[in-house]
């Protein structure tokens, strides 16, 4: 296997398929996952076998670090700060993204929000793809990770809307009660958004106001990705043609010229 090297924060000299890496950031419940889902839907990637997908999506939540028992007790009372950069294992995230950029198959655990823990037994296999979407509140916070993205999107949804959505989602899907959601939001989520997430908006290439409601922005992004995928397909078939020509020449059965 070739060694993965970085020059100026970008990959250099790697073998295999190097995907186009798109970071999708924004505050909690801004619609990051929904925007990624819309992009995947519009590109016809959702009802497709995982091994065949040209576009895949992963979440930063898969890189929450393991908590100690004392931290889990705090988390159960809504007293652990999951919005601080220290809550993440950014080194593991960087390593995984480098593997993905090197065109290697990776395994990424899912996150269990009810138990505040990763589920390694329920991991997702990320097969080599042409485009990889990486969504999360702090994907632009760590410079080593920020520098890996070829395109950066920031989902900018008004904070009242985000809080309203978070309350509903956390109660219905993440096993929380109202007091817990509001206390966690006031004590950790909102201050951390202002200190760590919001300042990273300046790194974005495209800001998407109103998230998934902004179909114009989503269509433009989808168009850009579609053009990229078409170019990938063109260069793949050119590579295949070259391969056929060289193989036949080597076998001595035909005398094609090497194509460039
Ligand atoms: N445009 C929208 N209109 C209504 N509800 C939305 C919209 N976008 C997202 N939601 C809902 O808000 C919640 C948070 O959205 P999600 O995409 O998971 O946000 P994030 O990934 O940023 O946390 C989910 O329950 C989702 O269904
Ligand atoms: O155990 C946990 C882990 C995370 N959270 C909250 O989740 C959000 C990030 O996820 P989004 O889908 O982007 O909202 C973050 O604000 C954490 O506070 C949690 O509550 N419990």
From TrEMBL:
Superkingdom classification of source: Eukaryota
Molecular function per GO: ATP binding; uridine kinase activity
Protein keywords: ATP-binding, Kinase, Nucleotide-binding, Transferase
Keyword Nucleotide-binding: yes
UniProt xrefs under Gene3D superfamilies: P-loop containing nucleotide triphosphate hydrolases (3.40.50.300)
Catalytic activity, reaction form: cytidine + ATP = CMP + ADP + H(+); uridine + ATP = UMP + ADP + H(+)
Pathway: Pyrimidine metabolism; UMP biosynthesis via salvage pathway; UMP from uridine: step 1/1; Pyrimidine metabolism; CTP biosynthesis via salvage pathway; CTP from cytidine: step 1/3
Sequence ranges assigned to domain Phosphoribulokinase/uridine kinase in this UniProt record: 21-216
InterPro entries found in the cross-reference section: P-loop_NTPase, PRK/URK, Uridine_kinase-like
UniProt EC number: 2.7.1.48
Similarity comment text for this entry: Belongs to the uridine kinase family.
Name of the protein this chain belongs to: uridine/cytidine kinase
Organism of derivation: Aquatica leii
């Amino acid at each position: 296997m070739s060694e993965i090297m970085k020059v100026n924060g970008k990959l250099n000299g790697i073998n295999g398929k190097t995907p186009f890496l798109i970071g999708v950031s924004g505050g909690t419940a801004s619609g990051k996952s929904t925007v990624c889902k819309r992009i995947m839907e519009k590109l016809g990637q959702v009802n497709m076998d995982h091994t065949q997908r040209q576009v895949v999506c992963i979440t930063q939540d898969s890189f929450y670090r393991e908590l100690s028992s004392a931290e889990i007790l705090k988390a159960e009372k809504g007293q652990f700060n999951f919005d601080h950069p220290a809550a993440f294992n950014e080194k593991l995230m960087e390593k995984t993204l480098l593997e993905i950029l090197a065109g290697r198959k990776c395994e990424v655990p899912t996150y269990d929000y009810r138990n505040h823990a990763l589920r390694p037994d329920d991991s997702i296999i990320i097969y080599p793809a042409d485009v990889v979407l990486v969504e999360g509140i702090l994907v632009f916070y760590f410079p080593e990770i920020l520098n890996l993205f070829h395109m950066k999107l920031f989902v900018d949804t008004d904070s009242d809307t985000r809080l309203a959505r978070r309350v509903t989602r956390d109660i219905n899907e993440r096993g929380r009660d109202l007091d817990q959601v509001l206390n966690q939001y006031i004590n950790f989520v909102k201050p951390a958004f202002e200190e760590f997430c919001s300042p990273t908006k300046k790194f974005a290439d495209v800001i998407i106001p109103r998230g998934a409601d902004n179909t114009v922005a989503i269509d433009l992004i989808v168009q850009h990705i579609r053009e990229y995928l078409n170019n990938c397909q063109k260069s793949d078939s050119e590579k295949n043609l070259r391969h056929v020509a060289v193989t036949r020449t080597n076998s001595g059965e035909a005398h094609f010229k090497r194509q460039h």
